[in-house]
Amino acid sequence: MYQILKQIVKTGIKTEAPPQPDQALRVAAARLEDAMSRTLGRALVIRQIDAGSCNGCEAEIHALSNPYYNLEGLGIKFAASPKHADLLLVTGPVAKNMEVAVKRAYECTPHPKLVVAVGDCGISGGIFGESYASCGRVANVIPVDVVVPGCPPTPEALLIGILTAISAK
Amino acid sequence: MKLLAQELSFETLTGAVAAHRALADEAGLLAFCRAVKETGGRLVALWGGDLRDRGQGEGFALHVAFGIETGLAIVSLPLPAANPEYPDLSEIFPAANRLQRAVFDLLGIRARGGDPRPWLRHANWPEDFFPLRRDCDASRTFPPQNEDYAFVRVEGDGVHEIAVGPIHAGIIEPGHFRFSIVGEKVLRLEERFGWTHKGIEKRFEQMTLADGYRLAGRVSGDSTVAYAWAYCQAAESLGNAVVPPRALWLRALFLERERVANHLGDLGYLGNDAALSFGLAQFMRLKEDWLRLSGALFGHRMMMDAIVPGGVAADLSQQGGEQISAQCDAIEREAAILKNIYDEHAGLQDRFLTTGRLLPSLAAELSVCGLVGRASSQTWDLRTQNPVVPYDRLETQIATHRAGDVAARVAVRFEELFESLRLIRLIVARLPQGERLLPLVRPGAEDAMGIGWVEGWRGDVLVALEAGSDGRIRRCHCHDPSWLIWPALEHAIMGNIVPDFPLINKSFNLSYSGQDL
Ligand code: SF4
After folding, report:
1. Rounded to whole angstroms, how far apart are CA atoms B279 and A4?
2. Among partner residues A127, A131, A133, which is closest to B214 by beta-carbon distance?
């Protein structure tokens, strides 16, 4: 226990200030009223869905929880079920084999059903494109509010995308 | 040349990898399989190809790659255009089961008497649509269908099933797990994958030798360096390239940095899954420091596209080298403190020890490779057994354990982490001067196969590449080590309690995308 405490004290607080939203990332008009935006800004629940990614985007989404970005410190949490989520964070081109599951998850998500499509694949299908096995971009399968470019996007870019999605109209 | 005292006559493939290839008939292939098994070798990969457009009388081919003492041995079995079939190899190598099913789904060549269930196909395209056939129009799309997959049922008093996935509760790739349990105890686990199949191997056919590395680097993002290097080895062998020494050393630097990044993350999550969230915060902090330096020095946190055919796209300055060495020292100090905390933490050790055991004999039977294999006495590590430049000069220490439990997989990660830090400092100190990129020469023979084989952080990644003389890719097969390790997870969980599954699964940490392709 002493070792653990010593290490915690030595490490100190690493959390950095969060970035600002960027309205240029919107692909649909903002839908949140100011009051709702402020509520979500303090307690946002995200359900992450890998719709067919190469797992590179997941690696950077994991990084959001590290002490530098400290997502939980901003009041943002990942949920285990879309039923508890305000926002879906969707990675990858949508694999044909995931099409039905992605649609179902979207249907289960309560209002406001915000969707952030992550990475070049989420935006356009990326290098995988469209084929018998890939439905391409996320917007081909469910409505998308905000996109986050990058392959994979950096944690900071992801954070900007998420904060943009919950900013008011 | 002859291998394992068998009839087949092997030729040595050009390129960096120690690989030999022979043509065989069914009897020759079966005899070679048995010889590999008897001499302690292993199955590495199994894939197929369509040669029908090469001319009259051509059909299909089955390729089987084995790991033996001399390196890689590839046996190719020509198959007729009509009704292509081959003997079921899963009786000799159980690990062939899923590979054979994938080959059928993609090419329509069948293992006679093998498991008839699909693997990558989920009823979302027709049964007679074989995307990797040369004449298949892969841009066709079909309406999704509900699949009725024949899971194996466990019957008995008090047995019930838990079905999880494809979408999991955490930030994890999609897959489906079917547990048969009594009380809390797992009697059986059956995996069903293929959810992230996105047609990668067909997509390669629209690319050239020079640009396919980007796609290879996105088969499994967490192993982008290993894949890009393996792809480039294969492309360079076809393109008769001479890769400058500086580039080879930098590739090893990237590969070891990828290993360290992944091991740091895994060690954090393993602590977390055993209820020590302190471990997660600490290791993820170290990982973030690590990724930031990669981003600053090489332009990409995960070093995607840093390895290109003919060399590397990123270089290292004197000052960058100093930063790397200093960071290795710092991470080594911190990781040593954390290892001490993990070792002394009774609660953690209680969860790690004897949990999720994979016995060495079973690991051998299942051809398990990589770090999971090494935690179960499977002493395979290309960096020591078939070292390419610069590994032939670095004397990499292989990390192996016998216990095969979560604790052993944690121990292998710690040892490999420290070893990689040593290797990185050595590479930086001895990095040769000179060019870092030389152009590819156009490929020659139409029927040549280029091979890449790299020990990634998870295990050995294999790339088998064929191209036309115009430089267009005919076939690019990417093989993830996860193919051979996933089946072992089904065994390691048996007899454990359901709540230990996340911990055991994390101690394996396998790729879904890598095997779904
Ligand atoms: S955007 Fe890049 S990192 Fe993300 S899933 Fe696509 S290929 Fe992988």
Report:
1. 9
2. A127
Chain centre distance of CA B38? 24
- Biggest CA-to-CA distance, chain B: 70
Domains of chain A are 24-168 (3.40.50.12280)
How many CA atoms does the CB half-sphere of B288 hold within 13 Å? 24
Q: Which residue of A has its CA nearest to B335?
A: A7
Residues 6+ apart with CB under 8 A from B160: B180, B181
Q: Which residue has the tokens 């690019």?
A: B476
Q: Identify the H or E element spanning B405.
A: none
β-sheet bridge partners, residue B181: B160, B186
Q: Does B140 score more than 80 pLDDT? A: yes
Tell the residue nearest (CA) to atom 2 of ligand 1. A151
pLDDT of residue B444: 66
Hey, what CATH topology would domain B11-112 get? Beta Polymerase; domain 2 (3.30.460)
Using CA atoms, how far apart are residues B25 and B18, in angstroms rounded to an integer? 23
- CB of A57 within 8 Å of a chain B CB? The answer is yes
Each residue's pLDDT tens digit, B409-425: 999 999 999 999 999 99
- Option in A7, A133, A151 nearest B198 (CB): A133
Neighbours of A167 (CB within 10 A): 19
Q: Which residues contact B354 (CB under 8 A, 6 or more apart)?
A: B403, B405, B407
Statement: residue B270 has pLDDT above 90: yes
pLDDT at position A1 over 80: no
ipTM of the complex: 0.93
The domain covering B206-515 belongs, at the CATH homologous superfamily level, to Cytochrome-c3 Hydrogenase, chain B (1.10.645.10)
Q: Which residue of A has its CA nearest to B214?
A: A127
Residues 122-151 (A) with a CB less than 8 A from some CB of B: 126-135, 151
Atom 6, ligand 1: residue with shortest CA distance: A121
Domain ranges in chain B are 11-112, 206-515
Per DSSP, A91 falls in state E
Q: Where are the beta strands (DSSP E) in B346-396?
A: none
Q: Do B302 and A59 touch (CB under 8 A)?
A: yes
Distance B221 CA to ligand 1 centre (A): 7
